[in-house]
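pipeline/complex-builder :: batch 7 item 3
reading input block
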Amino acid sequence: MPSSTAVEIAKAVQSGARSAVDVVSERLAAIEKIDGRLGAFLGVDRNAALAEAREADRRVKEGERLPLAGVPVAIKDNLCCVGYACTCGSRMLETWRPPYDATVVARLKAAGAVVIGKTNLDEFAMGSSCENSAYKPTRNPWDLARTPGGSSGGSAAAVAAALAPLALGSDTGGSIRQPAAFSGVVGFKPTYGRVSRYGLVAFASSLDQIGPFARTVEDAALCTRIIAGRDERDATSADQPLDDLVAELKTPVRGLTIGLPDEYFGDAVDDDVKAAVTSAAKALEKAGVQSVRVKLPHTPYAIPVYYIVATAEASSNLARFDGVHYGRRAKGAADVGALFAESRREGFGAEVRRRILLGTYCLSSGYYDAYYDRALRVRSLIARDFSLAFGQCDAVLCPVTPTPAFKIGEKSDDPLKMYLSDVLTGACNLAGLPGLTVPCGFATRDGAKLPVGAQLIGPRWSESLLFRLGRAIEASAGVVDVASPLAEEVR
Amino acid sequence: MPRLHGPAERPETRGEPMIDRKEVEHVARLARIAVPAEELDRLAGQLAAIVRYVESIQGLKLDNVAPLSHGGDASDVFRADEPRPGLSREDALKGAPDRTDDHFRVPRVLAEPT
């Protein structure tokens, strides 16, 4: 039997059946018990978490209605959270303590949630396996020899191992959806502009979006509703109406149409992954959802375009780490130029340096037109593919990843091989669309039972629709009732 | 040096890696990252492999396609121009690797006149 969901915890704490302190103490004990093997967390502050829990209990006692009363949340360590270091998985920011909370963190706290710790990630969110963290790899709760995916691997693993019912991640090219699929949990990347990124350490600003990990679609919908909405501190956050995402889950999906894109079911995708996603489509058909085949012909260009656009933007965003205002500073630099160059050499790991150099190359004089400008034009074609497909269907259903979770070390020597694990997730960010991962089955590798995820991609602002479809898949797949082996130890 | 690619050119016939150690040194200078000499060749090889891979976009006809710089609504956003409390000077300086009174301290920027 799986551990309590966020909705169950909030109900129990709100009604006085349980205290937030009790809930949080129990999860802290679970972290103590298994995180040495899992490596999901970079920072846990027991006293701070218990103080926040006492505050939630006090507010409930005073009659406040808190939608996340006493719910422990794990926060990816590229989101600012007062009282915690915000390392971004990098030596560059090893000791940096942000002076403010990210808007998403502030909104969760206002809703009664309790920050239980900061989670591991690939350095500055650059990676697909959590092996690029400067501190440690995170392991997959279904098989400790495998990665939980990345870059938000710590958040995915924390939820999959029942160390927290909810977690936040960020998704630039699949960094929420891919680890959710590898770890057998729900993960959601909202529409670009739906959630404020104030307090998120920027990687690629035209692609980054913050979203939740949860064990159930309902919890993910609840968390999204709380963190979403216009924030004047992020000029790209939109003032868009948002349904009551939880109440809307009750609206039947009958009569909707999903599109199955041919390009996402090609030879590169393992047969049992395809079969699990096809079974999700069949389950939707039983619920009265029609399915049609659609074409997204520019899909093969998504990764090339993504790695030009994302690295170009990263080379600009990461220019701020220069050893002057905060973060690591190299000792003994003779002049300010050497201070920049040496601080950046010491502070950044190999993958971050590689991406900054690639982005700088693509933007440099003589190459800008051939790479960056062309990539932005192909990006238009990728976005147009989706617009045309949404003329035939309400949302697209496809695999999240070509394979289930791969082994630690399997791809870490070959950057390009690692980049290709984003092949089914990057287009969604390029087009600014919302994307939802829902566990839909299992595949066996070397005797290990590994989760497989289905991906739903919809038009901009179609959050509510995706959660309804996701809920229908969840209801039929039965994966939600199966806990990972590590979660079994601490439930 | 600009490289122009005709739309008919097939990426797989484009041949050798286009990034050598000199190119890496140049880009590293632009990016203000010191790269140790012994890493230059390996980085050149890795970057060349990635660039060869992304070359596939060179084969598309894009003359009539507009660039898309982000997936959001493109518009400028302004807030009211009113003074409001911000980060205190002390909070802003808290993360400074080196400071003097109320300032960030850095090594010399300009050389002494000779």
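note: Residues 6-248+462-490 of chain A form a domain with the Amidase signature (AS) enzymes fold (CATH 3.90.1300.10).
queue -> next item
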